[in-house]
Amino acid sequence: MPLVSAGLLIAWWRGALSRRTWVIAIALQAILVVSGLAAIKTGGQDEERVERVVPEAAIEAHEEAAEAMIWVAAGVLLLAAAAMVPRERAGQLVAAVTVAGTVAVLGLGIRAGDAGGRLVYQHGAASVYAPAAAPGAPPGAPTPARADDDDD
Predict the structure, then answer these.
(1) pLDDT (tens digit, 9 = 90+) per residue, 94-130?
(2) Is 44 among the domain residues?
(3) Where in the sequence is the domain holding 22, given as residue range(s)?
(4) Residue 136 has what pLDDT?
(5) CA distance 144 to 130
(6) Average pLDDT, integer, range 124-142
(7) What is the percentage of the chain residues whose pLDDT exceeds 90?
(8) How confident is the model at residue 137 (pLDDT cuts 50, 70, 90)?
(9) Residue 53 included in any domain
(10) Helix, strand or coil for residue 139?
(11) Rounded to an integer, what distance in angstroms lies between the CA atom of residue 80 and that of residue 111?
């Protein structure tokens, strides 16, 4: 979003694109917010299952980072929409603040992704979705192949 919104704003300032093209930034920011809300919903559904292997503090760190990102992204969406005010220069100023906001959202997204990565790679969250090993198999042994596995 920082690159797209900055590019749209620069083109708008230079007169290469009209104000109407800013709708692209609004639409993409809306998609970011909606997909983030969907991710939070599915993450909440998985929380109970993952709590068995992951410390609660690690889950909360990821959840809080994701929620912060979505709240700021929603605020940036409102800013992006406000850039469509009737006055051209005022709209461009609001769009410039929006671009700065997208940079903040990017930083928060990186923080949420890092916390999610720690859930998987440090705390083994993905292990709750792994198929069970064969009875008596040593830890880390491959799971038995299924008849429907097709590597061709």
Answers:
(1) 999 999 999 999 999 999 999 999 999 999 888 888 8
(2) yes
(3) 2-128
(4) 60
(5) 12
(6) 69
(7) 72
(8) low
(9) yes
(10) coil
(11) 23
| Residue/partner pairs of 93-102 with CB below 8 Å, 24 or more apart | 95/5, 95/8, 95/9, 95/12, 95/22, 95/25, 96/9, 98/5, 98/9, 98/25, 98/29, 99/2, 99/5, 99/6, 99/9, 101/72, 101/75, 101/76, 102/1, 102/2, 102/5, 102/29, 102/76
What pLDDT score was predicted for residue 74? 98
Tokens standing for residue 58 = 């690690």
Both tokens assigned to 40 = 């939070």
Residues 50 and 119: beta-carbon distance below 8 Å: yes
Count the Cβ atoms, other than its own, within 10 Å of residue 77.
23
Q: Is residue 9 part of a domain?
A: yes
Q: What is the pLDDT of residue 46?
A: 85
* Number of separate domains in the chain: 1
Instruction: Read off the tokens for 65.
Output: 């980072």
Closest CA to 75 of 103, 16, 33, 44: 33
Q: Is residue 139 part of a domain?
A: no
* Least confident range of 27-36, 49-58, 74-83: 49-58
